[in-house]
């Protein structure tokens, strides 16, 4: 962690480089960690436009990470076996699959939090809390279908 803080301080003190360094707590941001396919900590990614590069070098020194970003080492193939190609668009966290995956995971965690909130706040049994959650989702979907049906119904032309 101290190395990453030093890297952030280095890039943030040089705004002309236009590099922003951020960190997330993978335990708190589970959907984001899943979208980026984080399996171990710390993980280091470079996002350049819509391309995402994963730093795979085992030597995660301050110097190596700064050079990787500053010299655009992620776009260079040194022949050393490092993964310098961007993640494929379909598998990229910024691609359509990654965005859908993140939305579904966030929705699932949100529903699980609501389930726990129902149990804790109203002292409901898990079965009853689940029934309320399912019933609410059913009614919500029914209302959305009715609204879409009304909106999509062709209107008769008035002369």
From TrEMBL:
Name the membrane topology term.
Single-pass membrane protein
Sorted keywords for this record are: Disulfide bond, Electron transport, Endoplasmic reticulum, Membrane, Redox-active center, Signal, Transmembrane, Transmembrane helix, Transport
Every Thioredoxin domain range: 2-70
What CDD domains does the record tag this protein with?
Answer: PDI_a_family
- The answer to whether keyword Transmembrane applies is yes
* Claim: Cell cycle is one of the keywords in the record: no
**Protein's name according to its UniProt entry:** Thioredoxin domain-containing protein
Q: Where in the cell is it found?
A: Endoplasmic reticulum membrane
Record's Gene Ontology CC terms? Answer: endoplasmic reticulum membrane
Residue ranges spanning the membrane: these are: 127-151
Lineage of this protein's species?
Answer: Eukaryota, Sar, Stramenopiles, Ochrophyta, Bacillariophyta
Q: Name one GO molecular function term.
A: disulfide oxidoreductase activity
Q: Which organism is it from?
A: Entomoneis paludosa
**InterPro entries linked:** Thioredoxin-like_sf, Thioredoxin_domain, TMX_domain-containing
């Amino acid at each position: 962690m101290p190395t990453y803080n030093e890297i952030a301080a280095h890039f943030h003190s040089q705004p002309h480089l236009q590099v922003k360094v951020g960190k997330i707590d993978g335990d708190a941001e589970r959907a984001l960690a899943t979208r980026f396919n984080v399996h171990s900590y710390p993980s280091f990614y470079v996002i350049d436009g819509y391309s995402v590069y994963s730093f795979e070098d085992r030597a995660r020194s301050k110097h190596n990470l700064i050079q990787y970003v500053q010299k655009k080492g992620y776009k260079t193939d040194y022949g050393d076996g490092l993964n310098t190609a961007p993640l494929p668009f379909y598998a990229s966290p910024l691609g359509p699959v990654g965005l859908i995956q993140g939305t579904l995971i966030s929705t699932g965690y949100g529903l699980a939090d609501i389930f726990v909130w129902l149990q804790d706040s109203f002292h409901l049994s898990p079965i009853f809390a689940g029934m309320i959650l399912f019933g609410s989702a059913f009614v919500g979907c029914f209302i959305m279908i009715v609204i879409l049906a009304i909106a999509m119904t062709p209107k008769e032309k008035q002369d």
